[in-house]
């Protein structure tokens, strides 16, 4: 079996085509909003861009539980790098999958080793034709760990980032792909922004265009305790037409046109209020196709 296994680098990557449905229960708004705004497919390379205290860990847990429920065939791995110990315990108890963690009181070498072991294991499973989902928290902290542990190249970017330190986390993130003729590696990683650190900014800028799905969380919404604090207009998936049906695409574009004219808070409030009125996303899309959503919800 090992001899017949094709090496990961030689497998052909494609855009995601099979949907990973997030929707589970009518009351779980986070999952339903992700399904509408930034659909996730098998092989997605997604960034969850979040300022501190915007609820990114909760979003990751919701995604993990939705995948465990709707796609039990997918192998789920949570990789926590440089995280708080209580967060690791919380993740282990709430997520039905492997949780591989290195807490912030460990040296930087431990963080990088844990991440590398996790991604190599994921690659081997993909070579055997499995669908693997890796949830990484967080990409920025992994970049910081490589910056501390990698040997100095002598070329320092702004913010004190060594130019050689950005290659390994990119290699990690770039491993996500949908494989032709079976198997996929989905990576959803969180990226920290607005932390006040120049280094975090530089690391995020490097990863900005590399993903094919982005979910943005908003500090303003989180401060007003409006959850899930999703910035609807800034979030989305590339080539979402591969994941949605023709009918869904038409309705979503109509919805996007309405929401793009509103500010972040109005857009999210209209969306959540309408979602709460319906029992499923299919019902919600039917409602949108029949009505026009205005700022005051007039029909």
How would you sum up this structure in a few lines?
The chain is an alpha/beta fold and 299 residues long. The protein has helices at 29-37, 56-70, 85-94, 108-127, 139-149, 167-174, 198-207, 219-223, 246-260, 264-277, 281-290; strands spanning 13-14, 19-20, 40-41, 45-50, 75-83, 98-103, 131-137, 156-157, 161-162, 177-179, 184-192, 213-216, 236-237.
Features:
11 helices; alpha/beta; 13 strands; single chain; globular; 299 residues; 9-stranded mixed beta sheet
Descriptive report:
The chain has 299 residues and is an alpha/beta fold. The chain is built from eleven helices and 13 strands. The strands form three sheets. Strands 1, 4, 5, 6, 7, 10, 11, 12 and 13 form a nine-stranded mixed sheet that branches. A hairpin with a 3-residue loop joins strand 8 and strand 9. The mean pLDDT is 93.
Order of helices and strands: EEHEEHEHEHEHEEHEEHEHEHHH
Let me know the average pLDDT: 93
Number of H- or I-type helical stretches? 11
How is the main sheet built? 9 strands, mixed
Helix content: 40-55%
Question: Uncertain runs with pLDDT below 50, 5 residues or more?
Answer: none
């Amino acid at each position: 079996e090992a001899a017949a296994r094709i090496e990961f680098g030689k497998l052909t990557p494609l855009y995601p085509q099979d949907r990973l449905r997030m929707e589970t229960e009518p009351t779980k708004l986070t999952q339903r909003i992700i399904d509408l705004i930034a659909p996730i497919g098998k092989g997605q390379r997604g960034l969850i861009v979040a300022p501190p205290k915007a609820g990114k860990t909760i979003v990751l847990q919701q995604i993990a539980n939705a995948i465990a429920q709707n796609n039990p065939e997918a192998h789920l791995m949570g990789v926590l790098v440089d995280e708080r110990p209580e967060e690791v315990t919380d993740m282990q108890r709430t997520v039905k999958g492997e949780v591989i963690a290195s807490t912030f009181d460990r040296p930087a070498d431990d963080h990088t080793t844990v991440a590398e072991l996790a991604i190599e294991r994921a690659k081997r499973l993909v070579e055997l034709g499995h669908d693997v989902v890796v949830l990484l928290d967080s990409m920025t902290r992994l970049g910081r760990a490589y910056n501390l542990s990698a040997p100095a190249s002598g070329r320092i970017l702004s913010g004190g980032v060594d130019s050689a330190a950005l290659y390994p986390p990119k290699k990690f993130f770039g491993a996500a792909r949908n494989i032709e003729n079976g198997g996929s590696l989905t990576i959803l990683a969180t990226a920290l922004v607005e932390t006040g650190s120049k280094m975090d900014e530089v690391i995020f800028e490097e990863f900005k265009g590399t993903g094919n799905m982005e979910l943005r969380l908003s500090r303003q919404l989180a401060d007003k305790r409006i959850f899930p604090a999703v910035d609807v207009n800034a979030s989305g998936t590339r080539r979402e037409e591969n994941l949605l049906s023709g009918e869904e695409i038409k309705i979503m574009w109509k919805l996007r046109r309405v929401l793009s004219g509103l500010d972040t808070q109005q857009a999210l409030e209209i969306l959540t209020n309408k979602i709460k009125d319906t029992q499923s996303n299919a019902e919600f899309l039917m409602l949108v196709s029949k009505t026009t959503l205005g700022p005051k919800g007039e029909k």
